[in-house]
Amino acid sequence: MEANNSGTAAAAAAAELPDSISSVIPGWFSEISPMWPGEAHSLKVEKILFQGKSDYQNVMVFQSATYGKVLVLDGVIQLTERDECAYQEMITHLPLCSIPNPKKVLVIGGGDGGVLREVARHSSVEKIDMCEIDKMVVDVSKEHFPSVAVGFNDPRVTLHIGDGVAFLKAVEEGTYDAVIVDSSDPIAQELFEKPFFDSVAKALRPGGVMCTQAESIWLHMHIIEDIVSNCRQIFKGSVNYAWTTVPTYPSGVIGFMLCSTEGPTVDFKRPVNPIDADDSLAQAKGPLRFYNSEIHSAAFCLPSFARKVIELKD
Question: Which of 83, 112, 182, 185 is catalytic?
Answer without folding.
Answer: 182
